[in-house]
Amino acid sequence: HALTLDRVLLVVAGDPWQKRGAVIAAADERFGMVEAAVRDIDGVEASRVEIDRVGASVTADTLEALAAPDRELFLILGSDAASNMGTWRRLDDTRPLCTVVVVERAGEHPVPPGPEWRFERVPIPRLDVSSTEIRARVAAGRPIDGLVREPCASSTNTGSMLRGNDDRVARGLTPSPITRAEARAAHPLAVQRALAVADAANEKKGDDVVILDVAPILAIADVFVLVSGSNVRQVRTIVEEIEKGLKDIDGSRPISVEGLDDASWVLLDYGDVVVHVFLNETREYYDLDRLWADAARIS
């Protein structure tokens, strides 16, 4: 409404290469949820343009696919995505294809990744609704009414998609652990980094360090590392030690770091390795060890 657009496409990523570890559901399942959410909203529709295209989801590719002589394109982003634009593939090719529209919550004001970008801003109230919280509530059998649109809340596909592996765990269909040698043979660099993460976490007395081989079930990340701390200070100390350890080993820096403000659950995304550092009570509440129980533990 603020921009008087004729049509809004909610593009579901096929291969979201920069959100490794954050995407649990398959692309078709995510498309089904988005489609249900907007089915009765005029002018808004779910798009499969990135799902049906082979390869990584790259914004410039999508804009080129949607371009037409009589069409002006607006790329609508949240503040987090806008702040991360500098890491995009084909960023320079993206600039002339669209006007970037940043939907800003109170206190957020990302800047363009360089000069000559067409930028517009649409402020909205801050809504304290977390996708992580929604996914965890579904996995734990808690209600999500009022947190998502009713067509999604009542969809049986929503529950099965977000609940993930609970049914398999209940039936005892969990994979056998694999050795480090087996894991190294499949993805050596990721395992090397994961072991370095584990060493750093142990150095700061992290609790219950678990390394999971998620490549067979996620396809967008190779390894998850889970570790807990007893208080916020320890969580932040573990995060700092992990960042320092990987930087010292091979110069690695995380693509993104989320959750450091309250430090109850911090996610560090290194691409092939995703690290989750929790408070003990947060890890117990969300029970993500169970949610990802289809992944083999690297012993």
Topology (elements, then pairings):
Blueprint: E1 8-11, H1 27-38, E2 44-47, H2 59-66, E3 74-78, H3 79-83, H4 91-94, E4 99-104, E5 119-123, H5 131-139, H6 150-153, H7 156-163, H8 166-170, H9 180-186, H10 188-203, E6 207-213, H11 215-218, E7 223-229, H12 232-250, E8 256-258, E9 265-269, E10 273-279, H13 280-286, H14 288-291, E11 296-297
Parallel strand pairs: 1-2, 3-4, 4-5, 7-10
Antiparallel strand pairs: 6-7, 6-11, 8-9, 9-10
Helix pairs in contact: 5-7, 9-10, 10-12
Any overview of this molecule?
The chain has 299 residues and is of the alpha/beta class. The protein has 2 domains: 8-168, 3-Layer(aba) Sandwich (Rossmann fold), CATH 3.40.50; 180-297, Beta Polymerase, domain 2 (2-Layer Sandwich), CATH 3.30.460. Helix content is 37%, strand content 18%. The chain contains 14 helices and 11 strands. It has helices at residues 27-38, 59-66, 79-83, 91-94, 131-139, 150-153, 156-163, 166-170, 180-186, 188-203, 215-218, 232-250, 280-286, 288-291, and strands spanning 8-11, 44-47, 74-78, 99-104, 119-123, 207-213, 223-229, 256-258, 265-269, 273-279, 296-297. The chain has a 6-stranded mixed β-sheet with strand order 8-9-10-7-6-11. Strand 8 and strand 9 form a beta hairpin. Helix 9 packs across helix 10 (188-203) and helix 10 (188-203) crosses helix 12. The longest helix has 19 residues, at 232-250. It is globular. It starts with 7 loop residues before the first strand and ends with a strand. The relative contact order is 0.13. The model is unreliable at 162-175 (pLDDT under 50).
